[in-house]
Specification:
alpha+beta; 4-stranded antiparallel beta sheet; 2 domains; Peptidase M50 domain-containing protein; single chain
Length: 368
């Protein structure tokens, strides 16, 4: 209910903003070409500064700032210095992103340090938006080029505020108030790096214990969905049976259905969980009947973000619906925002091999 009201308020703000821009243009208060140029230049600057402050805050508080994505480019970082620039396939789900990885987490004290560092890193981006916006507004007023001030206000309304509400702000709220989400974030961003077995075991056990303690309801379903998917994904890569409690949690989430997820991007996590479960029940437990039932939930789904198309290809290939061997082996359908993340890329390679191997074995049995 709260999100629906918020969406309506945002739509009203968008409409009023557009009308005001048109009126100011008609009355020659602003020049549309100057306004457009100011909007584009300032948007790029704000995105770069926003992501940089996410990363630099993480680095100052003990995490690793390993790369920064700006549109189709990724700046590589090592030993607190940017060391190179690579061009990657543009990821339409974000304009920029700071790639942050954890260091070793072997006990509760390490975990607390990392949790505090993540809170500060998430908060740093929106704080930088406020500061740079204030600077641009002052510059516009002092120079008399009001297009600068108005353009940055439009960026705040159309980009920064929605990004905070549905991105950084929501993540900051969850990491402060939901233990499952907090552990999931730290666990996931440890998996993408190159971590020790001790860190892996500590975080895995901590996440399992927290999932077991959490009651499934409307408030916890999204964090539990993310947590369960992380555990199942890693279990596929390591070819190990997951605890019954995790299976039951995942099944309960699926049974509740997509209607329990908020409109917008949240539904992606539901589809991702199901695709991961399909791979698990085929590759690890060889339970094709249940995998086929799960497939009915995602059959004909739309792939709305990078990585989802690969999820669909893996699912349909392993079930024998389509032949996507070449596409899976090419690696070009992977989510580019994890480019260079050693741990994650290793798991992706293992899972791709398992999907292709399983399909090959199944086809050979069918031929026989």
């Amino acid at each position: 209910m709260g999100k629906n009201i918020l969406k309506r308020i945002m739509l009203i703000m968008y409409f009023v903003s557009v009308v005001l821009i048109i009126l100011m243009s008609v009355r020659k208060i602003i020049s549309i070409p100057v306004f457009s140029l100011a909007f584009i230049v300032q948007a790029v600057i704000i995105v770069i500064i926003h992501e940089f402050f996410h990363g630099i805050s993480a680095e100052k508080n003990g995490l690793m700032f390993t790369s920064m994505y700006i549109g189709p480019f990724v700046l590589l970082r090592e030993n607190r210095k940017f060391t190179g620039l690579k061009k990657v396939k543009f990821n339409g789900s974000y304009l920029g992103r700071a790639n942050i990885e954890n260091r070793e987490i072997k006990n509760d004290d390490d975990f607390k340090i990392h949790s505090n560092a993540w809170r500060k890193a998430i908060k740093a981006g929106p704080v930088s938006d406020i500061r740079i916006s204030t600077v641009f507004i002052i510059i516009g007023i002092c120079t008399g080029i009001y297009e600068i001030s108005i353009a940055v206000l439009m960026i705040d309304i159309f980009v920064c505020i929605p990004s905070f509400i549905y991105g950084d702000g929501e993540h900051l709220f969850l990491i402060k108030n939901n233990k499952v989400f907090e552990i999931s974030v730290i666990y996931t961003y440890s998996m993408i790096g190159n971590i020790s077995n001790q860190t892996d075991e500590y975080l895995y056990r901590k996440l399992i214990d927290e999932i077991d303690k959490t009651v499934l309801n409307d408030d916890s379903i999204l964090p539990l969905c993310i947590a369960a998917q992380s555990v199942i994904y890693k279990s596929i890569a390591e070819d190990k049976i997951i605890p019954e409690s995790i299976k039951n949690t995942a099944k309960d989430i699926v049974n509740k259905g997509p209607k329990c997820f908020s409109q917008g991007m949240d539904i992606i996590y539901f589809r991702s969980l199901i695709n991961t479960m399909i791979l698990y029940y085929l590759c690890v437990e060889e339970n094709k009947d249940y995998a086929e039932r799960l497939y009915l939930y995602v059959k004909g789904m739309k792939c709305s973000v990078p990585g989802e198309r690969l999820d669909k290809m893996r699912t349909e290939h392993i079930l024998g619906k389509e032949d996507y061997k070449k596409e899976i082996e090419s690696g070009k359908y992977r989510n580019q925002m994890f480019y260079g993340c050693v741990g994650f890329e290793n798991m992706e390679n293992i899972i791709d091999d398992k999907v292709i191997e399983y399909s090959y074995i199944k086809n050979k049995k069918t031929e026989t």
